[in-house]
Each structure stands twice: as C-alpha cells, then as structure tokens.
C-alpha cells in the first residue's frame, strides 16, 4: 500500500470516530483485526470492535478532536502521532498519542495506540 492510500485509510478510520459513524470505522478494518487501546483493552475482530463502538457512543459520548499531527507509512505499516479529545461519561478529556498500524489489502489488520501520560515539557536538568 502506498503512503497516500495508507494515509487515506487511517484518515477514514479517524473521521469515522469524529462522525460517530460505526460503518465508516468498521469499513477500514480487516475482519480478523486487532485493536489495542492505549490503556489496555484489546478488541479482536470486527464484531467485537462493533460492540465496543456501540458501547463507547453511549448517549453523551463524543469524540471532539482527533487530529493527526504526523504520519509515516511503509508498504505494510504506518506510524502516526495525534492529538485526541472527547467527552465520555460527562467528562471532558484528551491526550496526545501515537499509533502503529499494520495494513493488508487496503484494510487495518492491527492497530495499537500509545498515550502521553503527562503534559509535555522542556527538561531543565
């Protein structure tokens, strides 16, 4: 998969979350996909990801920002950094993070997220 196609696939996944569009999110995933969230939960297969999406978009939950700030791809993998914000269970939250994705035949087969756990700052030794 070329860089532009990989970038479009990841953008479609992210835009699906921003639009709360279950079908758009699922359309980017391989049937046997694995998605690992930054805080540990692992979802195996599109059916389980679909159940996660349904539960995540409970009334009042919304992704308010998911901006990709850098993107690099090879033919089978991509790496991207992002800035994420949401309202979940009535609480506003957000963090910076990065993801690794493995791609095959135009779909995401593996996606693992990593989160920044503290505000970035300059080290002053």
UniProtKB/TrEMBL annotation:
InterPro entries in UniProt: NTF2-like_dom_sf (IPR032710), SnoaL-like (IPR037401)
Segments forming domain SnoaL-like: 12-110
Pfam entry (one): SnoaL_2
Membrane spanning stretches: none
Protein name: Nuclear transport factor 2 family protein
């Amino acid at each position: 998969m070329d860089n532009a196609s990989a970038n479009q696939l990841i953008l479609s996944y992210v835009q699906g979350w921003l639009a709360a569009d279950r079908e758009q999110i699922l359309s980017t995933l391989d049937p046997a996909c694995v998605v690992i969230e930054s805080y540990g939960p692992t979802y195996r297969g599109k059916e389980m990801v679909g159940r996660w999406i349904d539960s995540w978009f409970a009334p009042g939950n919304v992704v308010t920002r998911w901006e990709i700030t850098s993107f690099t791809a090879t033919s089978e993998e991509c790496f991207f950094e992002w800035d994420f914000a949401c309202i979940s269970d009535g609480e506003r939250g957000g963090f910076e993070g990065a993801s690794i994705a493995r791609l095959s035949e135009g779909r995401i087969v593996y996606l693992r997220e990593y989160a920044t756990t503290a505000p970035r700052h300059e080290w002053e030794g």
